[in-house]
Design a protein that fits this description.
The complex is a heterodimer of chains A (350) and B (259). Chain A is an all-alpha fold and 350 residues long. Chain A has a domain of 219 residues. Helices cover 73% and strands 2% of the residues of chain A. Chain A has 16 helices and four strands. In chain A, strand 2 and strand 3 form a beta hairpin. In chain A, helix 4 crosses helix 13, helix 6 packs antiparallel against helix 12 and helix 13 packs across helix 14. Chain A starts with 10 loop residues before the first helix and ends in a 5-residue tail after the last helix. In chain B, helix 3 packs parallel to helix 7. In chain B, 40% of the residues lie in helices and 24% in strands. In chain B, strand 4 and strand 5 form a beta hairpin. Chain B is α/β, with parallel strands linked by helices and 259 residues long. In chain B, the strands form two sheets. Chain B has a six-stranded mixed sheet with strand order 6-7-8-3-9-10, with helices on both faces. The chains are: A mainly alpha (350), B alpha/beta (259). Chains A and B meet through helix 1, helix 9, helix 10, helix 11 and helix 12 of A and helix 2, helix 3, helix 4, helix 5 and helix 6 of B.
């Protein structure tokens, strides 16, 4: 965001995200505020932020795959489950510390995603949606029924509390620092990826795979890479989820979650990392706000049927999303871009 | 032509789709320093030929050699990274990207990115970006695209997009440039500009250019040699002066006088 009349005089500055001193101050201030949130917020709110952080990680991965590389994925929640189980099994069965299990869970989920990405060589669009949808059904079924002596099957799995040296990370505040640090780190990596050559290759494939091929991009390789990165993020999200909840089951996340990840991504704005952050925040805040409102309504009007507030909640939620897609299909990020462009031109109109 | 002077050799290429014979026994050579025009009526197989050279189609018979190495049947991205760049008849840009990013994306074969080095933007990755941005800016200067540098190409008018398409091919730093109807749908002035760019590319970069074009005026003015296709066969090849008076070319375009 640049005020009117300032110009970029070299390429480094033209490519930079933070250009002015004000932007740096605001960014650092924002990070400080973020990391001191536990001082001002209750445990209940911190728990919600933790949940939100995990969703953001999953949506970041999906944004790279679907928003940038254009390969639709209806199985992101299944990949998160894979990450959760990978991490939980590594800590319980192999006795690994959480800090090693988390990246390894990311890598092994990346591998699973890689396998489910193989059909993308041949199929596109709706057909690819079907093959990734298969992941959403195959993976939980496998966890529930195959080698239940290891996975715990339908009974689920209790996950040990992670610890850092002697400090046991068993509170919302402690996990807040872990999750938010990971979110900040992964956001940085995602932004680095998409603004560099790999991100351009992804967008090239999304916009015109024929031309991408003619311009020297190995399309299949980059599609698989996108699947790998996407499920790596899912794996990290799953690992965080497992060690934050400390209990996992094969149906912790369902196809509804996969679809919501897509919804959050679209509402945030396809093809922008900012969108992968504001999308989940918007949807989750709306959902929680409406839940709260419905509870208030149920409490105030005790004569109403008990199911009515919940029904109203779902209806209002649906209407808001619908209106959103009708009036701003390009997502929240597009609004922000429009605002930035206007700010750049003010007070001159051209 | 001796073997060292040949950049591209197309040898007896046959290409058919089911019962349709798109190319039959087409052979020609492109030297290291010439502009070769390929002309022919609609449906003569000109674009099929370019698609065969750039790897989108694999000919059933015949071979294509580039710098004396066989490239028949290689994947398009491999052929591009060997130095053959092309433009498209019906512009195929990355419509969601800006002009700069379209051109930067074409630097891909020279960047060879790795996942780890790209995961952290600062340091080597940043210096590499600046270095390639300079190359891209030179092309932007050359094609006079400065004003649309940061515009999303999907929004640009046709003539501008055609130029971006050319710029993207140049960003590959090719050693053979295939232009598939670069002047289609342009007005007289835009055609003149485009002809000037093509001649400048030829002079400054010293690369051979294969040009498919329908505008005979342009073809006769800027090309060194002309090859003529009709119904998938090469019916003539020679200097523009020779082609102008060639009887089979005239009958292919205008029909036989003796029907």
């Amino acid at each position: 965001m640049q005020p009117c009349g300032t110009f970029n005089v070299d390429y480094a500055r033209d490519m930079a995200i933070l250009r002015t001193r004000t932007q740096w101050v605001l960014t650092i201030g924002g990070l400080v505020l973020l990391f001191t949130l536990p001082l001002y917020l209750s445990d209940h709110l911190l728990g919600m932020i933790n949940m939100l952080g995990i969703m953001i990680v999953a949506v970041l991965g999906l944004m790279i795959l679907t928003g940038y590389a254009g390969q639709i994925n209806l199985g992101q929640a299944a990949f998160v489950t894979v990450g959760a189980y990978a991490s939980a099994l590594m800590t319980t069965r192999l006795g690994m510390p959480f800090w090693i299990a988390m990246p390894l869970a990311g890598l092994s989920t990346g591998l699973v995603g890689f396998i489910f990405g193989l059909p993308s060589l041949r199929v596109k669009g709706f057909y690819l949606a079907m093959t990734t949808l298969a992941a959403q059904f195959i993976i939980p079924t496998l966890i529930a029924h195959v080698r239940t002596d290891i996975t715990g099957g339908g009974r689920g799995l209790t996950v040990p509390t992670p610890h850092l040296g002697d400090i046991v990370l068993n509170s919302q505040t402690a996990m807040f620092f872990v999750i938010v640090t990971v979110v900040v780190l992964l956001t940085f990596i995602a932004k680095s990826l998409v603004r560099g050559p790999i991100g351009r290759a992804f967008v090239a494939i999304r916009d015109n795979d024929l031309a991408a091929e003619a311009m020297g991009i190995n399309v299949f390789r980059y599609k698989l890479l996108a699947f790998f990165v996407c499920s790596f993020y899912a794996g990290i999200a799953g690992s965080l989820y497992a060690h934050w909840m400390r209990f996992i089951n094969y149906d912790i996340l369902t196809i509804m979650d996969s679809i919501w990840y897509l919804g959050m991504m679209i509402i945030g704005g396809m093809g922008s990392i900012t969108g992968a952050i504001v999308g989940p925040i918007f949807v989750y805040a709306l959902d929680q706000g409406l839940t709260w409102g419905a509870n208030q309504m149920g409490g105030t009007f005790a004569t109403l049927p008990a199911t009515l507030p919940a029904a109203i909640h779902v209806m209002v939620f649906g209407i808001v999303i619908l209106l959103f897609l009708a009036f701003e299909p390009r997502g929240l990020n597009h609004r922000w871009e429009v605002f930035k462009a206007a700010y750049r031109l003010t007070p001159f109109s051209y | 032509m001796s073997a060292g002077d040949v950049r591209l050799r197309v040898q007896k290429v046959c290409l058919s789709f089911g019962g349709v014979q798109a190319l039959s026994d087409v052979s020609f050579e492109v030297g290291t320093s010439e502009i070769l025009a390929i002309i022919g009526p609609n449906g003569a197989g000109k674009t099929c030929l370019v698609n065969s050279i750039s790897g989108f189609y694999t000919p059933q018979q015949g071979d294509i050699y580039y710098k004396n190495h066989e490239i028949t049947g290689l994947a398009p991205y491999k052929i591009a990274s060997r130095g053959i760049a092309r433009t498209f008849q019906n512009i195929q840009l990355y419509s969601g990207m800006t002009t700069v990013d379209n051109l930067m994306a074409a630097r891909h074969i020279h960047i060879k990115p790795s996942l780890l080095s790209s995961a952290v933007y600062f340091g080597p990755a940043h210096r590499r970006e600046i270095q390639h941005r300079k190359v891209v800016e030179d092309i932007i200067d050359f094609l006079e695209l400065e004003s649309i540098r940061k515009k999303v190409v999907g929004m640009l008018p046709y003539g501008q997009r055609k130029k971006v398409d050319l710029g993207r091919a140049l960003a590959l730093e090719p050693e053979l440039l295939l232009l598939d109807e670069p002047m289609a749908g342009m007005n007289y002035e835009e055609k003149e500009d485009m002809a000037r760019y093509i001649l400048d590319i030829f002079d400054l970069r010293k690369i051979p250019i294969v040009l498919i074009e329908h505008d005979m005026g342009v073809v006769m003015d800027i090309s060194d040699r002309v090859a003529v296709l009709d119904f998938g066969r090469k019916i003539a090849e020679g200097t523009p002066e020779e082609i102008k008076v060639n009887q089979s070319v005239i009958s292919a375009y205008l029909g036989d006088a003796g029907f």
